[in-house]
Specification:
alpha/beta, Rossmann fold, 2 domains, 6-stranded mixed sheet, 4-stranded parallel sheet, 15 helices, 13% strand, globular, amino-acid biosynthesis, EC 2.1.3.3, amino acid binding, transit peptide
Length: 355
């Protein structure tokens, strides 16, 4: 068992004191979130976004959901805008949420598969970025290699959104945090426990949880830990924001006293040949009611889908504790919130969320 705990030490207390002093001095809080502008930015990883910027994205997303879904308003905020959607990897939620969301806001989405665009094969990523910048206002790319996104962003003159890469999946985490904010009423002080593979979804949790005051406990089998560079940055963030970060190989240790249990596929696209070995290595990691028995009484469950039985059993997945279907729906509202924020100066109309 390996374990790293960043909590309750003098350095954290000292840094937290400095953080609070800085907040008082520079007005961090509601006023600063209200004044945040993300127009023209790209979103490759939440590592590049501050606490206030992530909160702003969640606030805009909640606002659009309230106004469009609940109040039945028509908001053509992206009228006349066009979106290029590059998909090297197939997806249900990413495609449907982005395509329908952009159209709902009055824009025109264009879906491009590897058969349509031949990214990096018949045409370089550099040339593709420059060409699409002349056609579209924004590009979402779901790719194998994160370096492809970095090349696109370097050469494009329009915002680039990471629809998933081998290193990060930021748009999934925005949906997860909006779902938890809706359910619990606030994110600050929640404990999220990841039980599974050290993958791109986990990396995005690690780059954002501390910024929202969320404690993060991670259980991965030996050899399946998160990237070391991501761990190092997550350690720094946990110290900076005064949150807890735990790394272990024991699922029950990670689940102990947690508010939220999270897992994901153990065999991602491109890892099919490793399936037999991975299922053996992840033995004991299935989330069940027994796993939840050591969590807090109000524990809930998240999974970004598609789900397989070995990752979580039906008793949890279809229980009242499962938030997976509201989580899936929120993929739409958060990608809409992100696109609106990157393309416009939209100001939310609903009261600011409690974080």
């Amino acid at each position: 068992m390996s374990k790293l705990v960043c909590v309750n030490n003098p350095l954290i207390k000292y840094l937290k004191t400095l953080q609070n002093q800085s907040a008082r001095a520079f007005g961090t809080g509601a006023a600063s979130i209200d004044s945040v502008s993300l127009k023209g930015r790209s979103c490759l990883t939440l590592k590049d976004y501050s606490s206030d910027e992530i909160k702003r994205l969640l606030w805009v997303s909640a606002d659009l959901k309230q106004r469009i879904k609940v109040q039945n308003e028509r908001l053509p905020l992206l009228q006349g805008k066009s979106l290029a959607m590059i998909f090297e990897k197939r997806s249900t939620r990413t495609r449907m949420s982005t395509e329908t969301g952009f159209a709902m806001l009055g824009g025109h989405p264009c879906f491009l598969t590897s058969q349509d665009i031949h990214l990096g094969v018949n045409e370089s990523s550099v040339d593709t970025a420059r060409v699409l910048s002349g056609f579209c206002d924004i590009v979402l790319a779901r790719v194998y290699s994160h370096s492809t996104l970095e090349e696109l962003d370097k050469e494009a003159s329009v915002p680039i959104i990471n629809g998933l890469s081998d290193l990060y999946h930021p748009i999934q985490i925005l949906a997860d945090f909006l779902t938890l904010q809706e359910h619990y009423g606030s994110l600050d002080g929640l404990t999220v426990s990841w039980i599974g593979d050290g993958n791109n979804v986990l990396h995005s949790f690690m780059m954002s949880a501390a910024k929202l005051g969320v404690h993060l406990k991670i259980a991965t089998p030996k050899g399946y830990e998160p990237e070391q560079s991501v761990i190092k940055e997550a350690q720094r963030l946990s110290i900076q924001h005064g949150t807890q970060l735990v790394l272990t190989s024991d699922p029950m240790e990670a689940a102990h006293d947690s508010n939220v249990l999270v897992t994901d596929t153990w065999v991602s696209m491109g890892q099919e040949e490793e399936k037999k070995k991975r299922l053996k290595d992840f033995h004991g990691y299935q989330i069940t009611m027994q796993t939840g028995s050591v969590a807090k009484p109000d524990w809930t469950f998240l999974h970004c889908l598609p789900r397989k039985m070995e990752e979580v059993d039906d008793n949890v997945f279809y229980s009242s504790r499962s938030l997976v279907f509201p989580e899936a729906e929120n993929r739409k509202w958060t990608i809409m919130g992100l696109m609106v924020s990157l393309l416009t100066d939209y100001d939310p109309k609903i009261p600011m969320l409690k974080f």
